[in-house]
Amino acid sequence: MTQTSTSVPSPAENAARAPGHRALGWLKFAFLRFGILPFLLLVVLVAFGAAEPRFLSGENLLNVARQSTFLIIVAMAQAFVILNEGLDLSVGSLVGLVTVTTGVVMNAQIFGGADIPTAIAMGMAAGLGVSLIVGMINGVCISFFGFNPFITTLAMMTALTGVSLTLSNGVPVGGIPFEFGEVFSINRYLGLQAPLIAVIVIFAGGYFLLHHTVFGRHLYATGSNERAAKLSGIPTRSIRLVSYLLCSVVTCFAGLLMLARTGTGAAGIGSQYALESVAACVIAGVSLMGGVGRIGNVILGALFLTLLNNGMNILQVQSYLQKIVLGVILLVALGGDRIRLRLLGERS
Amino acid sequence: MTQLNAQLRREPATLTPVLTLTGIGKSFPGVRALDGAELELRAGEVHVLFGENGAGKSTLINIISGVFSQDEGQMMLNGKPCQFRNVHEARAAGIGAMFQEFSLAPHLTVEENIVLGNEPARGGVLRPRETRALVDEVLERCSFALDPRREVSTLNRAEQQMVEMAKVLLVEPKILILDEPTASLSEAETQTLFALVDELRAKGVAIIYITHRMREINQIADRITVMRDGRHVATLDADLADHDRLVELMTGRKVGNLYPSRSTPIGEPILTLENFGTEDQTLHDISLTLRRGEILGLAGLVGCGKSEIGRAIFGAQAFDHGTLTVEGTVIDKPTPRAMLRQGVCYISSDRRHEGLMMGRNTSDNIALSALPRAEFSRNGILRLISERRLVKALAEKIHLRPMTLDADVANYSGGNQQKIVIARALATRPEILILDEPTVGVDVGARVEIYKSIVELADEGTSILLISSDMPEIIHLCDRCYSVSGGTITDEMTASEVSEARLLDSFFREHAPKD
After folding, report:
1. Radius of gyration, alpha carbons of chain A
2. Which chain B residue's Cα is nearest to A29?
3. At B172, is the pLDDT very low, low, confident or very high (cuts 50, 70, 90)?
4. What is the rounded CA–CA span in Å between residue A275 and residue A141?
5. B353 touches chain A (CB under 8 A)
6. C-alpha radius of gyration, chain B, whole number
7. What is the dihedral of CA B163, B169, B171, B174, to 10 degrees?
8. What rounded mean pLDDT belongs to chain B?
9. Are A156 and A90 in contact (CB under 8 A)?
10. Which alpha helices (DSSP H) does B368-413 contain, by range?
11. Which of A284-293, B254-263, B443-452, B502-511 has the lowest mean pLDDT?
12. Cα separation of B127 and B150, whole Å?
């Protein structure tokens, strides 16, 4: 938030200009500074909490936290490319491909007589390997050949689903070693399960990378104004390539954790994340024009989407209606962001 | 030339004002853009609006043309109070505006653009023959040689400007607003535009003309209104206004000498170009030498190739033959990255697209080029405290005002934005600094400070290649200069030899229009 802090008028200033509208001044200040997301979160918590007290129970909130980890991870992955004025629609089908590849390789290893730890390690390596290849292809096509990110990753999404289906012969891959699920989904370390630890580590790593390294600054710069970045001696194409690699690798972690949680690998697993991850970023104020947004907010964005889903499930809102609500909220978020940018921009 | 202009300028046809604005105030969240602005516009006059960037000129013309409405104050059109809710109403009242930013659709044709928003149609169905007649008529009236069927994106900037102008004149406005119309025009095109303005003035059109250029004011202005900080400062007859008086009114202080003097010995050659050129001959047979601590000018008209020379040296644009030597090292294929390592820095004339990261804060913008340096990072990890300190020192050095390092750069005026881009270059501690039109769209106050910075740098031993279309800048600032025309160097002169006459002579020596 430091970037915008001084360009926002203080609430005192606002209040002074419109005496008697002190509360409104504060609201506007919060809106300009943090965007629409805190308001949406508040509305959802209050509305659902009032309608159904169970929604606010510790148990349910914990449940939401657990459910949301995968989306949070994929959304953070997505943020790396969106900040760079890119887009990766293939993250959803990559999750599926990682579950399938890892599962297939684990099974083959066990069938070939390898011991369980080796099989698990080989399987995970295979999952990571395909992710690197996918990130590489996306990155090279977009940054070095100048392909359009939307179309490139849309094509990748389609192709990857096909690869997953081919690898798995169209049936879900089972027979995952129980130990894999134990280590990466059930066991607690310092009271935390692996997915939550992954979220914390990826957030901390991502935050450090974006705000404390030269690479991070260059990533924002490339997303904000590529020509200026290039003239400032920044290797913009490499930066862009690395952002796609990062995105795929982080997505891979989500795939591995997903496989540990469900014990099945299938092409369709995670397919919803393609759009949900973009939605989480946009709601969190990550600009699709690149260069603007913070990774911490992306976590809130993903949490919000999961909360909304959970709340509507508890209230037994019809699933068709749920989709309508989600669509409307996305539009509201986009509209709110535009108003915010205009209010900020009018001051120039 | 000036005698001719004096002849062309005629007395205003009438002294009754067509448009009067009194006590205009306008606020945006956090900014008081106008506070007691005034303007009295007479039919048949060219009325120059003069002021620093951020003085409120743009806001004022936006109110007149119906883009914004004022918070307070009164606007009278032909003696009757009026208020426009949108651009359409203003246009219907006979007010046409041509803004700096073009409002053209690049993929439509000249004709389609000219009638855009006013398409002759019946029941929503276009009437092509009527359109053609209308367009032919307006092009004829302006004596523009444009093919109505050409796509606008294939036109050069001057031609696009003509389309923009034709679009405004289609409805025969009573009041015409021109916002820095010559910013991208060459000398010849400027004269064409002035002829047209003269013609409109003779027909009784009242013209509001925004410009920073003194020469234009001398040439076409009848009266001048000076604004400062959103207020009306003075309105005076053009005959009574000289440069120093206007600058004093505009800045509110005496500007002693615009150009600082310098007396530093110039060192050995640090950068040389030999037989430099491109395959397509847009640049050809260029040889030049830049010495240590020297301010070397590249003068020329817009589009003569001087910018391209600077870009090619920095690697922002390719060249096909010739030798580039920097500090004894021959460089085959320069890239911006490699040149920055060599200590060469380039500041683009296009701040918006090639300079600033809009939406990012000042500090990030200043530090951008220098991040890999040891003062800013260690092993790829930023040293935020050290960065903060260095950025602050740089911002102070260039007199950034206000000093809000956390604020979005979009909030700064053009002059301050230019200072930020210069600070970014300084952060890399360049040996050689290439400045492309460093004072375009920069008000006089900031201009003085930028000149001071340039001279300070040269005194510290930095070599400066100053690419500029502004002749006074070249004449007063440079130790030596080359003039460029038609993609090659046509003359070289030292500070004692340079004069406006000699520069102009060399500009036109080999100048053949390319279109």
Report:
1. 21
2. B29
3. confident
4. 21
5. yes
6. 24
7. 160
8. 85
9. yes
10. 384-397
11. B254-263
12. 19
- Tokens 């005076």 found at: B236
List the one residue out of B336, B277, B310 whose CA is nearest residue B466. B310
Q: Are residues A29 and A17 in contact, defined by beta-carbon separation less than 8 angstroms?
A: no
Rounded Cα–Cα distance for residues A347 and A340 (Å): 11
Tell me the C-alpha distance between B334 and B317, whole Å.
9
Phi, psi of A113 (to 5 degrees): 95, 10
Residue A10 pLDDT greater than 80, yes or no:
no
Number of H helices, E strands in chain B: 18, 24
CA distance B19 to B80: 9
What does the block give as tokens for B27? 């606020």
Q: How many residues does chain B have?
A: 515
Q: How many CB atoms lie within 10 A of CB A18?
A: 11
Q: How far is B457 from chain A (nearest CA, A)?
A: 19
Q: Is A172 helix (H, G, I), strand (E, B) or coil?
A: coil
Residue B452 phi/psi, 5-degree rounding, is: -60, -45
Phi, psi of B156 (to 5 degrees): -80, 175
**Which of B265, B99, B258, B274 is closest to B180 using CA atoms?**
B99
**Residue-wise pLDDT tens digits, A89-128:** 999 999 999 999 999 999 999 999 889 999 999 999 999 9
Termini Cα distance of chain B: 26
Q: Which residue of A has its CA nearest to B381?
A: A213
Contact state of B353 with A3 under an 8 Å Cβ cutoff = no
Do the beta carbons of residue A134 and residue A248 sit within 8 Å? yes
Give the DSSP H or E segment for B289. strand B286-291
Q: Could you list the beta-strand ranges (E) of A143-293.
A: 188-189, 192-193
CB nearest to A9's CB, from B29, B358, B408: B29
Which tens digits make up the pLDDT trace of A168-196? 998 999 889 999 999 898 888 998 889 99
Question: Which parts of B315-389 are beta strand (E)?
Answer: 321-326, 329-331, 344-347, 377-378, 381-382
Q: Which two tokens stand for residue B374?
A: 């040891």
Task: Please tell me the distance from the alpha carbon of residue B297 to that of residue B468, in angstroms, as a whole number.
Answer: 7
Q: In angstroms, rounded to a whole number, what is the distance separating the alpha carbons of residues B426 and B431?
A: 10
pLDDT digits (tens, 9 = 90+) for B52-89: 766 788 889 989 988 888 888 999 998 889 888 888 88
Contact A279, A305 (CB under 8 A): yes
Q: Are A73 and A254 in contact (CB under 8 A)?
A: yes
Cβ-based contacts under 8 A for chains A and B: 113
Cα separation, B160 vs B157, in Å, equals: 5
Which of B58, B67, B346, B408 to mutate to test binding with chain A, by most A CBs within 10 Å of its CB?
A: B408
Contact of A227 with chain B, judged by CB distance below 8 Å, is answered with: yes
CB proximity list for B211: less than 8 A, separation 6 or greater:
B48, B50, B180, B182, B217
Helix, strand, coil abundance in chain B, percent, nearest 5: 35, 25, 40
Residue B513 in this model has a pLDDT that exceeds 50 = no
Longest CA–CA span in chain B (Å) reads 75
pLDDT band at A5 (very low <50, low <70, confident <90, very high): very low
Question: Nearest CB to B406: which of A3, A229, A231?
Answer: A3
A227 and B354 Cβ atoms separated by less than 8 Å: yes
Separation between Cα atoms, residue B291 and residue B269, nearest integer Å: 4
- Among B443, B96, B354, B376, smallest CA distance to A230 is for B354
- C-beta neighbour count of A11 within 10 angstroms: 18
Lookup: tokens for B88? 């359409």
CA-closest candidate to residue B418, choices B53, B157, B58, B57 = B53
| pLDDT per position as a tens digit, B258-286 | 677 776 778 899 999 999 888 888 889 99
